């Protein structure tokens, strides 16, 4: 089975901190994605990547950046955390043709205080 | 528009059938998906349907696709308390490798 592993289930950070959320997949998928999930708003795409060192902005990239130095790892960076970035963050990966859709990690619930 | 629409809530009695509906956006979508999210967890793929099919059955799950109306539904037979979760539909428009998700339907099953 494909596994997508997010390094932390729960994180509490202070306003202004730089925050790193890590995601690793083990099936050589080309595509990786970061979403945030908020009640009533569904899933919103922050950034995605089609290949190593490639990145594309999603619908809500402001306040975030990403890094993909290796194919299996896609990191989401909050440059200066703010309270409105308190959310559930979901990482996903997908094979190029997308027949089987995304495989998601179990999520990181981030609280910024 | 770009929105994939779902109703927010559905409440059913244990043992009854549940039907979760979704209206998607792109008539050229090649694959459509249903995901389940249990409390505090990520999304898990339940099933998918290719756009040249109009029905797919997998044990208690039946997916119906009406391409003309761009309507997708998920029927869960003999709904159990373990089916309580949020259900998301998603489409792959084929233009990119991104999926577009609905807002999710929270299914509550009561005894």
Structural overview:
The complex is a heterodimer of chains A (113) and B (111). Chain A has 113 residues and is mainly β. Chain A is 0% helix and 52% strand. Chain A has no helices and twelve strands. In chain A, the strands form three sheets. In chain A, strands 2, 5, 6, 7, 10, 11 and 12 form a seven-stranded mixed β-sheet that branches. In chain A, strands 3-9-8 form a three-stranded antiparallel β-sheet, with no helix packed on it. Chain A has a two-stranded antiparallel ribbon with strand order 1-4. Chain A starts with a strand and ends with a strand. The mean pLDDT of chain A is 93. Chain B has no helices and eleven strands. The model of chain B has no long low-confidence stretch (mean pLDDT 91). Chain A binds chain B through residues 4, 6, 30-31, 33, 40-43, 45, 48, 50, 90, 92, 94, 96-107, 109, and chain B through 8, 31, 33, 35, 40-45, 48, 88, 90, 92, 97-99, 101-104.
Characterize this entry briefly.
The complex is a heterodimer of chains A (113) and B (111). By secondary structure, chain A is mainly β.
Relevant terms:
heterodimer, A: 113 residues, mainly beta, 12 strands, B: 111 residues, 6-stranded mixed beta sheet, 11 strands
Q: Flag low-confidence runs of chain A.
A: none
Q: Which protein chains make the most extensive interface, counting residues with beta carbons within 8 Å of the other chain's beta carbons?
A: A-B, 28 and 21 residues
Structural category of chain B is mainly beta
* Radius of gyration based on Cα positions of chain A: 13 Å
Mean pLDDT reading of chain B: 91
Number of strands of chain A: 12
Classify the oligomer.
heterodimer
Largest sheet properties of chain A: 7 strands, mixed
What is the 3D form of chain B?
A: globular
N- and C-termini, Cα separation of chain B: 39 Å
Shape of chain A: globular
Q: What's the total number of strands of chain B?
A: 11
